[in-house]
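TA notes, week 10

Several of you asked for a full example with nothing omitted. So below is the full record: structure tokens for the whole chain, then the designed sequence directly under it. When grading your own attempts, check the secondary structure regions first.
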């Protein structure tokens, strides 16, 4: 066993981050391109979008361009921008953070950095090679910077993924603690950390929920009879 450099829980051999931390990072990499759209709207309108995607926009009086949004949307520096040693101070633009880590990743993998995809600046590239990232020595610093970035973005857009509780109990620990966060690929148990793919969850749910529903009906009927009798 190894130790996860992010959360210090056990990780599989040869990994420097556990599957749960990998899951969180993958969620952020999926979230950032979606948030960039909202960030751009926050800058151009001088306002913040109504809560959530697809919500009705509220009219605000125009405000000056927001400095915090401008910083986040700022371009990456041209040329090499490697700053994966964590010694640069001050908030970095989204592109600069992702570009620097993508640059580090490309060097590790020994290939040229692919051309930037403007709608998902290197988030897609980093997500595609996350299997390498979770075995790298720099995964903890990458996680810290991404965490900071995502929280700065969310504070501007007032939008964050919601966690939806799932009704079936966890197959590993039996707790009713399974849930799925928007844009994340797995259902996760908050009690024991188990991850299930959507298919795994649906199969599990189909197997356990009908018997549970029958028990629920029996309990309700018994309570009803007890109340009748008293
Ligand atoms: Zn971890
Ligand atoms: Zn569990």
């Amino acid at each position: 066993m190894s130790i996860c450099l992010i959360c210090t829980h056990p990780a599989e051999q040869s990994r420097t981050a556990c599957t749960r931390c990998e899951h969180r990072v993958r969620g952020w990499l999926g979230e950032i391109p979606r948030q960039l759209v909202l960030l751009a709207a926050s800058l151009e309108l001088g306002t913040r979008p109504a809560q959530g995607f697809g919500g009705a926009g509220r009219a605000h009086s125009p405000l000056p361009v927001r400095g915090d949004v401008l910083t986040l949307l700022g371009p990456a520096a041209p040329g090499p921008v490697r700053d994966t040693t964590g010694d640069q101070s001050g908030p970095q633009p989204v592109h600069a953070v992702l570009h620097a880590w993508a640059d580090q990743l490309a060097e590790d993998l020994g290939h040229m950095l692919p051309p930037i995809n403007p709608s998902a600046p290197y988030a897609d590239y980093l997500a595609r090679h996350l299997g390498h990232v979770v075995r790298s020595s720099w995964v903890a610093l990458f996680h810290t910077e991404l965490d900071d970035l995502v929280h700065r973005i969310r504070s501007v857009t007032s939008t964050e993924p919601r966690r939806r509780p799932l009704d079936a109990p966890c197959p590993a620990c039996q707790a009713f603690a399974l849930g799925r966060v928007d844009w994340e690929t797995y259902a996760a148990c908050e009690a024991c950390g188990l991850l299930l793919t959507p298919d795994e969850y649906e199969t599990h749910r189909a197997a356990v929920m009908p018997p549970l529903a029958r028990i629920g009906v029996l309990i309700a009927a018994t309570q009803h009879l007890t109340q009748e009798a008293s």
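The first strand starts at residue 2 and ends at 3. Use that as a sanity check on your answer.
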